[in-house]
Amino acid sequence: MSISLYELFLVSIIGQCIFLIFAIQYIPKKHTGANRIIQYLLVIYCVFLFERALGHEFDIDFLRRYSNFINTLYLLIGPFVYTYIRRLFFYKNGNYQLAYYHYLPALFYVGYCFLHIYYYDSIKDYKSYFNTLLFWNDIIFFISISAYLFISNRLLNYYKKNEEQELSFNQTIIKYVEIMLICLWVYMIFWLLGIIERFVIKLPIDIRMIWDISCLIFGIQIYIVGFYNLKHPEVFKIRFPSKNGDMSKRKNKLDENEISKIQNLVDVFFKEEKGYRRPELSLAILANEINTTTNKLSWVLNNIYKKTFYELVNEYRVEDFSQRINENAHKEFTLISIAYEVGFNSKSTFYKAFKEVKKITPSEYIKQVENL
Asked: At what angle are helices 126-166 and 173-195 packed, to 10 degrees?
């Protein structure tokens, strides 16, 4: 048994994969439902990488007879990726499950695998049979994964679009999920090239190289998954889009008395209680504090204040920060420590929000104050 450097590299990635599967179990404040799906995906990736690294060591007849069971896992990747994003980004979706029919293709394929084993010895033209099998496998798996990646992208775009409506900060987790989906899209591009190279026209790139690159993409994704799940365990969620539409977009407005009541409570929360200093503040938390619903609060912010939740909260934070600078607090404390005191939870969110409100950087603002 001889193992090349590339195969040894894949084996090392498998070891990392196995480590992450167990390490994710001990993440503090973990999102159990979402991380469970990540563990399932890591197991799938581990199996694929193992087959690529050491599959040639098994008897060819054994692989032809039983390896289709491994192919079933391709039909689970799409549903698992979508479920992971749904559980990760939307509250009340922590244990979200896709309807059973999403998994029927995988179940039917398992049934085919048993039929394949039963009739295997009676196959006369192996070459023709396996060429047909490989072609339809590639087409079906490509369509399945691509379809779920498409709706997963739509879900991520919805989250990015509505994040400022419900959160007062930006999250690096979005970049992680974007990278994860990009990795999978790149994988599907190479998969399509593989179909073309094998069944349509010979390409300058060899099919074996395509497979190797695909496996490397899986490996890269595993490290990304591990890094962000271990370093950024906490994720702040928003509401899942309602079938009835967002109340903030409805034509019918709230009663004038209710609008006034909500507006007064919001003003008290920010101006008197300094609630904006809570770094984890979200639309759901504020709605709970003033005893109203997120839909009603969102409507008031969008139609009365004419601001997103992100804009309103960070305007108060920036003004609080500016007041402290005017009082020379920056001569005793660092800018970031002051930013954290007024409610910002990251350097990037602070600088972005300050420039949006003041149209200049914090350093430029300090120079203006000192030159007065």
From this structure: 160
**pLDDT (tens digit, 9 = 90+) per residue, 164-188?**
787 777 667 788 888 889 988 988 9
Helices (H), the chain: 5-23, 32-54, 60-66, 68-71, 74-89, 104-119, 126-166, 173-195, 207-231, 256-267, 283-289, 294-300, 309-326, 335-341, 347-358, 362-370
Which residues are paired to 90 by β-bridges? 238
**Do 326 and 287 fall into the same domain?**
yes
pTM, two decimal places: 0.80
DSSP letters spanning 249-288: G-SSPPPHHHHHHHHHHHHIIIIIS-GGG-TT-BHHHHHH
209 burial class (0-12, 13-18, 19+ CB within 10 angstroms)? Answer: middle
| Nearest CA-CA partner of 80 in 139, 47, 35, 49 | 35
User: Which residues sit opposite 282 in a β-bridge?
Assistant: 167
> Among residues 198, 231, 264, which one ends one of the domains?
231
Answer yes or no: are the C-beta atoms of 228 and 183 closer than 8 Å: no
Distance CA 192, CA 196 (A): 6
Q: At what angle do helices 32-54 and 5-23 cross, to 10 degrees?
A: 160
The average pLDDT across 241-250 equals 52
Distance between CA atoms of 223 and 216, rounded to whole angstroms?
11
Domain CATH number, residue 258:
1.10.10.60
Q: What size, in residues, is the chain? A: 372
DSSP conformation class of 304: I
Residue 325 one-letter amino acid: I
Which DSSP letter does residue 246 get? -
- In angstroms, rounded to a whole number, what is the distance separating the alpha carbons of residues 335 and 22? 39
Domain that holds residue 24: 5-231
